[in-house]
Amino acid sequence: xxxxxxxxxxxxxxxxxxxxxxxxxxxxxxxxxxxxETHMGVPFRISVYASDKVVANKAVAKAYKRIAELNRVxxxxxxxxxxxSLRTLPAGGQVQIxxxxxxxxxxxxxxSQRTDGAFDVTVGPLxxxxxxxxxxxxxxxxxxLAKAREQSGFRLxxxxxxxxxxxxxxxxxxxxxxxxxxxxxxxxxxxxxGGIRHALVDGGGDIAVSEPPPNRDAWRIQIEPEKxxxxxxxxxxxxxxxxxxxxxxxxxxxxxxxxxxxxxxxTGLGLINRLTxxxxxxxxxxxxxxxxxxxxxxxxxGLQLIESWPGAECSIRDHSGKDVRVVSxxxxxxxxxxxxxxxxRGQATIPDGP
Length: 354
Ligand code: AMP
Ligand code: MG
Description:
Blueprint: H1 3-13, E1 31-39, E2 42-50, H2 53-74, H3 82-85, E3 94-96, H4 99-114, H5 124-136, H6 142-150, E4 157-160, E5 163-166, H7 179-193, E6 199-203, E7 206-209, E8 219-223, E9 233-237, E10 241-246, E11 251-254, E12 257-260, E13 263-264, E14 269-270, E15 275-281, H8 284-307, E16 313-318, E17 325-328, E18 336-337
Antiparallel strand pairs: 1-2, 2-6, 3-5, 4-5, 6-7, 7-10, 8-9, 9-18, 10-15, 11-12, 13-14, 15-16, 16-17
Helix pairs in contact: 2-7, 4-8, 5-6, 7-8
The structure holds adenosine monophosphate and magnesium ion.
The site of adenosine monophosphate (AMP) has 17 residues, from helix 8.
């Protein structure tokens, strides 16, 4: 386990030594409560262990409130989100931004630097062109692609504390590859403040877990088996996160080539490498961003990045050939339990939420 994970677990322990009733936890039986609400365009499912439903409801309501608050900052669909409001900044313009936007920009710019620009939240103009290409089933026109590339590039952003300056006009920030992960981390943090130590937050496939269910060693989260027909395996996680990126459902096929919704910022083109990347990391913000970055970097460079990232592991499925080829980082197998069931989806055994 990496350094980052150890810190996260340590922090989790601090405010949670006693439950809401003030009794030591061992004296109180914890029940599982599960919830689902749509946020950021995906179902956010939260499962928590709490002493009673009132405690669970209260903490989970605050977690959802926090996710909704983050959506109002990071959404590129909402006309009045903070990110949308930045689009009108002129070249050389400067603006004060919220602490959340500043915090996630710092993480995003650091991720761009660590990935040689494979991950880049300034890809908005390119993503927009490829969304249009999906609708029209036509490749973006070269002139439009060239213009969108001029309006993209993390080096066009200058951040000093909470002051953001942009060096080009029509900047479109796109946090689609990192904001759901950040929202999962924030939900886990808010739950912890609300006295919930054992939680799972699933933001449409980006999943963060805190401490394992009571009397269990870990959360078990189902993953696809390596080969079709093999029984499903599970990832065994505690105080960790997992995210998956790929073009399984969001792509456009033009002249026999499938272009992904993930764009290589260095070429402006939708990916055609046909990878599905699953990353485990100490937190969901990193897992989400790393899964997208590794998709762009490809298997070789992607694995190198993951091996150098404390607490991170990954599995990459390559669907480009007749058979699916799977490569994994050195510690990934240790996180897999071939015989385990899926605890992120075990609705049947869960008491109803509110
Ligand atoms: P994910 O599903 O987490 O891999 O995120 C994909 C989404 O992130 C896309 O739909 C875009 O909105 C955005 N995106 C696409 N390419 C990139 C990239 N290279 N770096 C950062 N964000 C990207
Ligand atoms: Mg991502």
